[in-house]
Design goal:
Blueprint: E1 2-9, E2 25-32, E3 47-53, H1 56-71, E4 76-82, H2 87-94, E5 100-102, H3 109-135, H4 140-253, H5 256-272
Parallel strand pairs: 1-2, 1-3, 3-4, 4-5
Helix pairs in contact: 3-4
Length: about 280
């Protein structure tokens, strides 16, 4: 059984995809530091895929080593590059080299798994074709048919890689659109919150106006009651004054003669009583 070696080259970053079992090929991940690339051994009997997790600065430091040691090596099937800060720059640097595939940032684990699986499957077909060709050189037609099938699978794999790249770009556009929608929703929520604040202020002002009106009404009622009390007091004074006037009228009804007689009777009574 052939082995597919995935060389995870980084500064201690873990391999993002869980290992899976392949029906015909053993899959093995080897962790390598950036300064350990000279220890990578590429054998002709196995499948080799390089997966580099690097920053733009790190890529510039190792680009020459990667190009000289692995880019032209026929037993290196694919060189995958994942970068958090240099996707576009690295893509421009490796453009035109079919062995490179620069992944979108952020990394999509599901798409990475599909790329690896398709590459391993394609390489397994190629290896099977070569094995059959080596053992059946007399049947050139059969060998060419199998090799054509392997080549066709390889071309389809390349097309699938392009399709996956398009899917990743589409998902990136969707995420950007979603980010724009989220920004618009945030603005709408801010406007709603501002409207609620203004509505609360208007309600509070209305409550204060109602309280002021209620206070003015109470003051008006108190003034009315005080006015009524003053009017009642004035009526009482008028009634008392009326009684005094009637008494004076009755007093004036007595004639002057009656008053004189009363005075004389009063004097006579005092004499009888011995009052001087």
């Amino acid at each position: 059984m052939k082995t597919s070696y995935i060389w995870n080259i980084s500064k201690g970053r873990p391999f993002p995809v869980e290992l899976w079992k392949h029906s015909k090929i053993k899959v093995q991940v080897n962790q390598m530091q950036l300064d350990e690339m000279d220890r990578i051994t590429i054998g002709p009997n196995d499948i080799h895929i390089l997966f580099l997790q690097v920053t733009l600065a790190e890529w510039k430091q190792i680009q020459t080593t990667v190009a000289s040691s692995f880019e032209a090596n026929p037993f290196v099937s694919l060189i995958l590059i994942s970068s958090e800060d240099g996707v576009n720059q690295i893509q421009e640097m490796v453009e035109g080299h079919s062995k490179y595939l620069v992944l979108e940032n952020p990394l999509h684990v599901r798409e990475l798994r599909m790329i690896l699986d398709r590459t391993i499957q394609s390489e397994s077909y190629k290896a099977a074709a070569l094995d059959i060709g080596n053992s059946c050189l007399e049947n050139v037609g059969f060998f060419e048919g199998v090799f054509s099938l392997a080549h066709q699978e390889y071309e389809e794999s390349k097309k699938e890689n392009e399709a996956l790249r398009s899917i990743l770009k589409y998902e990136e556009l969707v995420k950007r659109s979603q980010a724009g929608i989220n920004t618009a929703l945030d603005k709408v929520n801010d406007m709603k919150n501002q409207e609620l604040i203004e509505l609360h202020a208007r309600v509070k002002a209305s409550q204060q106006l109602d309280e002021l009106r209620e206070k003015e009404l109470k003051q008006a009622l108190e003034l009315q009651r005080a006015t009524e009390q003053v009017l009642n007091y004035s009526r009482i004074e008028e009634m008392n004054l009326d009684k005094i006037l009637r008494a004076q009228d009755r007093l004036f009804e007595y004639t002057e003669q009656e008053i004189k007689e009363l005075v004389e009777e009063n004097r006579a009574l005092k004499k009888k009583l011995g009052i001087t």
